[in-house]
Design goal:
The structure holds two protein chains of two kinds. By secondary structure, chain A is an alpha/beta fold. The longest helix of chain A is centred in the C-terminal third of the chain and has 17 residues, at about 440-455. Chain A has twelve helices and 23 strands. Chain B is α/β, with parallel strands linked by helices. Chain B is built from ten helices and 20 strands. Chain B has helices at about 5-10, 15-25, 30-45, 110, 120-125, 130-135, 145-155, 395-400, 405-425, 430-445; strands at about 90-95, 100-105, 115-120, 160-165, 175-180, 185, 190-195, 200-210, 225-230, 235-245, 250-260, 265-270, 275-285, 290-300, 305-315, 320-330, 335-345, 350-360, 365-375, 380-390. In chain B, the strands form two sheets. In chain B, strands 2-1-5-8-10-12-14-16-18-20 form a ten-stranded mixed beta sheet, covered by helices on one side. In chain B, strand 1 and strand 2 form a beta hairpin. Chain B is globular and about 65 Å long. Classes of the chains: A alpha/beta, B alpha/beta. The interface of A and B includes residues 397, 405 and 416 of A.
Chain lengths: ~475, ~450
């Protein structure tokens, strides 16, 4: 093997992997926005958003209080990266909308937006697969289609504005309860200016056969996206939700700060799948947490490939006996990227179990960080946690960090944590090259192998997309 | 009574107390006094640790009060019960209440070989340059800047060991640091310099002195703020065992700094038994290829004791290895915190680092926090860490009890079984026994 210092720049870039369109996701269309709250954040912005959305007075109150909290909270830079200080909150657009009423059918969706979807490679036939498409274009859902079958089962699947207006009796009870406004600075920001996102209610005993899906993307320079998602699975209900993000590339920083709350009532199951591929200038600061009641199960499958800085630690509060929480996380950090991801498991009842499996890959000068919390308080018994973190470093200057925090009280619980850092096995690469693969192909295959046992748990179309994204990221990483 | 801001920052360690201390050590070299003055200024200016300091996450900050302590009066060796614990082979030094009270060199050829085994004050006067190069020369990186500065400011005397090139000290050297009397503040320090290819084994004991006559007055609140500097030159082999058994009312800080050079091997083992609240910071630097550091610790936590262990192992050169194993046995309402960090610098390829924290939970109310961390900036490395917290295997317990062994005894046996992985690495039989004795006594005292 060549010493790492001898790799020259030309060699680094001239390493194409066949069949991948590198310009994918790298485009922008001019869109005329009907509503625009301007840049910067103050009380007027918040009132404006609330008025445009024709919200109830309690919601305006909620937003204004959140704004106050946001202003008071410091950035968490005593533990988090100083890069957060580069966010200029005054230069961000906090609300943009195409129009108020979400489009109902595909025909009603404007052509240029359809065009955007096509460039992103959402195949026409795939839509038939999906129970409903809640595609968020900028901050408002541009296209919303709930399949009859889901609606017939009594499932409510709409955007946050509609849901809070039409079904406050269902959603208000849990809205902002799993993640309180004051949880952190960015959850407060989201609470003040949120728009878009999905609110889902699955009635007792209903098992939604197909995954519900939504695509989010950013398409305006300096435009932050603050979607809000709340999923409630009533007793014995089951639902799978998928969220995918791709965004055009821009020259100045963009902020994405979502809040996702899941509530799994007794015996319910929620699976939340994310594939995040924001452009390299996006700050992706997301708060995700689920509340699992008795015998309920919440599973986060979280895959982070894009963005400049992602800080996201999906959590589960295990509130009822025998509740189960799981986080499967894949992160890939390339040059100029910092994937600061992880998981939180808060045990709050006896015999609750949690499992965290995190795999990260650092390419070039990318940095990936695992940060986790496992908390088992006093007087609980029979709680178990298993945590595994594996990091793969591709280049000599790649970086990875692991910062878990595990607190256990009492002798009737058990936790185990294991982490490892390694590089791709040279023998493996050599073997594949001897079979005629290029080094890049071999590397790509090895990396895909590293995450394979996690990727297998993704729905088919996602694991295919994931593989393509990894191939794309691995381009030019070896030489 | 109004307490001014400065008082809140310094507690009992006021400027007057510092000047009084300085007056007692004014015969020492000027550079050292200068450093002490600078250290005091740092101590007085730095804030106490706060809630948002990551280096103090999970620590009981309320227990860190500096009030109610004073520099204690001198005490003679015959005024306290001194036990050798079998750790002295080649010689021993006894310090009590910050003063040298005894020094004995048993091995006859020690001095002939050029080994220096003396008090820190004598070393400062006679081997100033050597001391200057190594004494508190490493930065405080684990959060206790304030208390490390306090240690430097008030450090009065300690032990100094210098083993010259190619010299092997076969038998262990024993160092005893005693604190005596209620409210006593002690600042123990051990400085070890092992030159290239030197070999030495050191036992460093931190104990609360029990008076010889009157029945023991029960636990006395004391303040201990000490540490060591350990330098292992190229090819040196240093074994360092520290046993901390302060009184149960003691607030203890221990700051360890190790520098490991080319092909050197350092094995250190810290036994934590005493104190009310004990913080141990261990900073290891693997500075040249082939360096290896083995960092071991055993903790027996009873009652409401809190043991707060923070470690940092930095791999600064290629082909270095380190292995950290911290085992805690937690009883009653005890609490332990382990926060470790392995750092691999960008050029430190072929690093092999391991870090492991095992907590044995022996009570319903014990509390264990593990924060095993990694920061890796080189790709051709093998770094792993693990942390577990669990109770004793019920089947093992049941088996022992079915053989007629009482539960308490069975527990003790199983704890020794749990510790054996660490104890087994101590080659000197006497040192192994000394460690076992302290652990056994701890169980007896409960």
């Amino acid at each position: 093997m060549k010493p790492p210092t001898e790799i020259d720049a030309a060699e680094m870039t001239a390493n194409p992997v066949a069949g991948i369109d590198q310009t994918k996701g790298d485009f922008k269309y001019d869109v005329k926005y009907d509503f625009d709250a301007g840049t910067g954040l103050n009380e007027t912005t918040v009132r404006y958003i609330s008025t445009v959305k024709k919200e109830a007075p309690w919601l305006l109150e909620f937003r204004l209080k959140a704004l106050e909290t946001f202003r008071k909270k410091p950035l968490p830079t005593h533990w988090a990266t100083k890069d957060l200080e580069n966010i200029n909150f005054d230069k961000i657009r906090y609300y943009l909308s195409q129009g108020q009423k979400p489009k109902r059918t595909w025909d009603e969706v404007p052509d240029d937006i359809k065009h955007t979807f096509e460039r992103l490679g959402i195949p026409e036939q795939e839509r038939k697969f999906l129970a409903g498409v809640e595609a968020q274009f900028d901050s408002e859902a541009a296209y919303s289609n709930i399949k009859d079958i889901v609606a017939k089962q009594g499932v409510i699947f709409m955007n946050s504005t509609e849901a809070l207006r039409e079904h406050p009796e269902i959603f208000r009870k849990w809205f902002g309860k799993v993640i309180p406004t004051s949880d952190n600075k960015f959850s407060a920001l989201n609470s003040a200016v949120f728009s878009g996102g999905s609110f889902i209610y699955v009635p007792p005993g209903v098992k939604v056969a197909q995954p519900l899906q939504a695509y989010f993307r950013i398409n305006a320079e300096n435009f932050g996206q603050f979607e809000r998602t709340l999923i409630i699975a009533d007793e014995g209900a089951e639902v799978v939700y998928m969220e995918g993000c791709t965004a055009p590339k821009f020259s100045t920083s963009t902020l994405h700060s979502a809040v996702v709350e899941l509530v799994a009532l007794k015996g319910a199951k929620i699976q939340y799948i994310t594939v995040q591929n924001w452009a390299n200038n996006v700050f992706n600061l997301v708060t995700k947490r689920g509340l699992a009641h008795e015998d309920a199960e919440i599973k986060w499958i979280d895959c982070n490939i894009g963005s400049r800085l992602t800080m996201k630690y999906p959590g589960v509060v295990l509130k009822g006996e025998r509740a189960r929480g799981e986080v499967l996380s894949i992160a890939l950090a390339n040059d100029g990227q910092h994937q600061d991801t992880g998981a939180k498991m808060i045990h709050a009842a006896n015999n609750t179990t949690s499992n965290i499996i995190a795999k990260s890959i650092s390419v070039g000068q990318g940095r990936s960080t695992y940060r986790g919390v496992v908390h088992i308080p006093k007087h609980l018994k029979g709680c178990k946690n298993n945590t595994e973190c594996d990091a793969l470093l591709i280049n000599t200057n790649s970086r990875t960090d692991t910062y878990p925090a595990i607190s256990v009280k009492g002798d009737r619980n058990a936790t185990q944590h294991e982490a490892s850092v390694s590089k791709v096995n040279e023998d493996m690469i050599f073997y594949m090259q001897s079979r005629g693969l290029t080094e890049a192909q071999a590397m790509s295959l090895a990396v895909n192998g590293f995450i394979n046992d996690l990727a297998r748990q993704f729905p088919m179309e996602y694991s295919v997309e994931l593989k393509r994204l990894i191939d794309l990221e691995m381009e030019g990483s070896v030489g | 009574m109004s307490v001014s801001n400065t008082d809140a920052l310094t507690g009992s360690f006021t400027r007057e107390a510092f000047e009084a201390h300085l007056a007692r050590v004014r015969h020492l070299p000027a550079w050292w006094l200068e450093r002490k003055r600078a250290a005091y200024e740092r101590f007085a200016a730095l804030p106490m640790p706060g809630r948002t300091d990551e280096g103090w996450r999970f620590s009981k900050l309320g227990g860190l009060t500096l009030e109610g302590f004073a520099l204690p009066p001198a005490i003679r060796l015959d005024q306290m019960a001194h036990r050798e614990l079998g750790v002295t082979g080649a010689g021993h030094i006894v310090l009590a209440n910050n003063r040298l009270v005894a020094r004995e060199i048993v091995a006859p050829d020690l001095l002939r070989q050029g080994v220096i085994f003396d008090s820190l004050q004598n070393a400062l006067l006679q081997h100033g340059d050597l001391v200057r190069a190594h004494l508190l020369a490493q930065p405080s990186k684990l959060g206790s800047d304030k208390f490390a500065a306090l240690h430097e400011a008030f450090l009065e005397d300690g032990a100094f060991i210098h083993v010259p090139k190619n010299v092997e000290v076969a038998l262990p050297l024993g160092i005893f640091h005693y604190a005596s009397g209620a409210g006593a503040a002690v600042f123990p320090h051990t400085l070890v310099v092992a030159d290239d290819n030197a070999r030495v084994t050191i036992a460093d004991l931190f104990l609360t002195a029990k008076p010889t006559q009157t029945p023991a007055p029960g636990p006395e609140a004391q303040f201990a703020c000490g540490g060591h500097d350990l330098y292992a030159g190229h090819g040196a082999q240093v074994t360092y065992l520290a046993m901390q058994d302060w009184s149960r009312e003691t607030l203890s800080f221990q700051f360890d700094a190790k520098v490991v050079r080319r092909d050197a091997r350092v094995l250190s083992l810290n036994l934590h038994a005493g104190a009310r609240q004990a913080r141990h910071e261990s900073f290891s630097q693997l500075q040249a290829p082939g360096a290896h550091s083995e960092m071991l610790a055993l903790t027996v936590a009873h009652g409401t004791q809190e043991f707060d262990q923070r470690t940092l192992q930095i791999h600064q050169a290629p082909n270095t290895s380190s292995n950290l194993l911290y085992k805690n046995a937690l009883l009653d309402q005890a609490k332990t915190i382990f926060s470790g960090l392995i750092v691999v610098d960008p050029d430190a390829q072929k690093t092999d680092a391991y870090q492991s924290n095992r907590n044995l939970m022996l009570s319903e109310e014990a509390e264990a926090h593990s924060l095993p961390g990694l920061e890796i900036q080189a790709n051709d490395v093998r770094c792993t860490h693990g942390a577990t917290s669990a109770r004793i295997d019920r089947e093992q317990e049941f088996y022992l009890e079915s053989r007629g062994i009482k539960p308490a005894q069975a527990q003790e046996l199983l704890v020794f079984g749990f510790f054996e992985e660490v104890l087994g690495k101590v080659e000197h039989a006497q040192l192994h026994d000394a460690l076992t004795d302290i652990i056994r006594e701890k169980f007896k005292a409960g």
